[in-house]
Design goal:
Number of strands of chain A: 11
Shape of chain B: globular
Number of strands of chain B: 11
Structural class of chain A: mainly beta
Helix content of chain A: under 10%
Radius of gyration of chain B: 13 Å
Largest sheet of chain A: 7 strands, mixed
Helix content of chain B: under 10%
Order of helices and strands of chain A: EEEEEEEEEEE
Structural class of chain B: mainly beta
Shape of chain A: globular
Radius of gyration of chain A: 13 Å
Number of helices of chain B: 0
Distance between the termini of chain A: 37 Å
Distance between the termini of chain B: 40 Å
Oligomer: heterodimer
Largest sheet of chain B: 6 strands, mixed
Number of helices of chain A: 0
């Protein structure tokens, strides 16, 4: 059990550019979650997948954000036309089961939009 | 949505002291987890505790679901305990988004 991994760990980009983050969940975990954390706040839910199906999206996930989990394993989160307000830590978590299980978090990707 | 409040917001203690962190939530929950976020941002699972009491070394937690609160106890604090402690809840079975509190920042002074 190698834990949840995320890549890259840090990303600096200019406003208007597109960025893509990757998350590899714990092996055999069927659920995968994305959260966003801004400075001084707790993480906020963005979206989650059960296998390859995206089951819920937060209103925080504007049209510029898209997430995929094409084969039910790793997931990508893409932000198009980045804005300075997108600067945050993007956290991925995974769990196994049908609901109410422990979520295990990755180290996060810290995004800075200049 | 469900509201999660943590207290105190900040806590500064001498090494060796004990502490109690509180989490209040506004509705019944299916899932409650305590996390420690280290200075590098990693969220480390401490407890999965929607009800009852658990202990792990110097840490223990109690959730009284009927009264909608949870407590995290840290005994004999060490400098490595410093960081932010988050409580997170999930309201409904099958509704999997964790709602986090704003955290308690714990600083342990040598």
């Amino acid at each position: 059990d190698t834990g949840v991994s995320q890549d890259p760990r840090h990303k600096i980009t200019k406003r208007g550019q597109n960025v893509t983050f990757r998350c590899d969940p714990i092996s055999e975990h069927n659920r995968l979650y994305w959260y966003r954390q801004t400075l001084g706040q707790g993480p906020e839910f963005l979206t989650y997948f059960q296998n390859e199906a995206q089951l819920e999206k937060s209103r925080l996930l504007s049209d510029r954000f898209s997430a995929e989990r094409p084969k039910g394993s790793f997931s990508t989160l893409e932000i198009q036309r980045t804005e300075q307000g997108d600067s945050a830590m993007y956290l991925c978590a995974s769990s196994f089961g049908l609901g109410g299980e422990t979520q295990y978090f990755g180290p996060g990707t810290r995004l800075l939009v200049l | 949505g469900i509201q999660v409040e943590q207290s105190p917001p900040d806590l500064i203690l001498q090494e060796g002291a004990n502490s109690t962190l509180r989490c209040n939530f506004s509705d019944s929950v299916n899932n409650l987890q305590w996390f420690h976020q280290n200075p590098w941002g990693q969220l480390i699972n401490l407890f999965y505790i929607p009800s009852g009491t658990k202990q792990n070394g110097r840490l223990s937690a109690t959730t009284v679901a009927t009264e909608r609160y949870s407590l995290l106890y840290i005994s004999s604090s060490q400098t490595t305990d410093s960081g932010v402690y988050f409580c997170a809840v999930d309201k409904d079975f099958g509704n999997e988004k964790l709602t986090f509190g704003t955290g308690t920042r714990l600083t342990i002074i040598p």
